[in-house]
Amino acid sequence: LVKGEPGTGKTELARQVAAALGLELIEWHVKSTTRAQQGLYEYDAVSRLRDSQLGDERFNDIRNYIKRGKLWDAFATANKVVLLIDEIDKADIEFPNDLLQELDRMEFFVYETGETIRAEVRPIVIITSNNEKELPDAFLRRCFFHYIRFPDVDTLHRIVDVHYPGIKQNLVRAALTQFYEIRDVPGLKKKPSTSEALDWIRLLVADDIAPEDLRADPKNALPKLHGAL
Q1: What mean pLDDT do residues 22-47 have?
Q2: Does 219 have pLDDT greater than 60?
Q3: Residue of 184, 188, 179, 178 lying closest to 217 (CA atoms)
Q4: Among 158, 96, 161, which residue's Cα sits nearest to residue 127?
């Protein structure tokens, strides 16, 4: 389980783990409407009923109406894979509990066919959370935990240098000063993230904004091109 603010690289961590180990990455991006069952499989009973009425031969094999989910894909492969369950805290509070047994035992039962899908090779499961919602204790007990801190100014400066080689260093320093001042404003519903800082600096470079134009101005509470933040 990897927690941290949006934009700190949680999803990218899973991609880099897969790349470093030379493994396939299977990504399951969770939304507020996502149900745990969708990660296992979905049975389309409506389509089967329609096909039975139309005399379609597909009706005779119930497997034609089962759509495999990301966990099924990860369990069914003969090779080790990295399974990313991204932003699990977006889903309903019961979502993690509904996956407890399946992730613990690395298997699940398909009621429509009477078969058990069991992982031949245990995948590396990386679960990310923006820490917007508390996760159940029973779920947390089964996870190794890591928190990615938001980068300090020196680290973010190096990140900017990697993305924009040759950028004027005085512009970076001025921009990051303004960026961290905005992040420190009390009461912000959402603090700007690393990706938003990079987008903003790209706009500053494209518009040839001078570093001195970013210095604090008592008449303006927000810096130039702040919409990117």
Answers
A1: 95
A2: no
A3: 178
A4: 96
Burial 34-49 (b: 16+ CB within 10 A, else e): bebebbbbebeeeebe
- CATH architecture assignment, domain 2-148: 3-Layer(aba) Sandwich (3.40)
Domain boundaries, the chain: 2-148, 153-228
Strand partners, 85: 28, 127
DSSP H helical segments within the chain, as ranges? 10-21, 36-40, 45-54, 70-76, 95-98, 100-105, 137-140, 153-163, 169-183, 194-206
Helix (H, G, I), strand (E, B) or coil at 83: strand
- Compute the distance between CA of residue 93 and CA of residue 5 in angstroms, rounded to an integer: 19
- No. of H helices and E strands in the chain? 10, 9
**CA angle (194 as vertex; 188, 195 as ends), nearest 5:** 105
Residue 151 contacts by C-beta under 8 Å, 6 or more apart in sequence? 8, 159, 194
Q: What is the pTM of this model?
A: 0.82
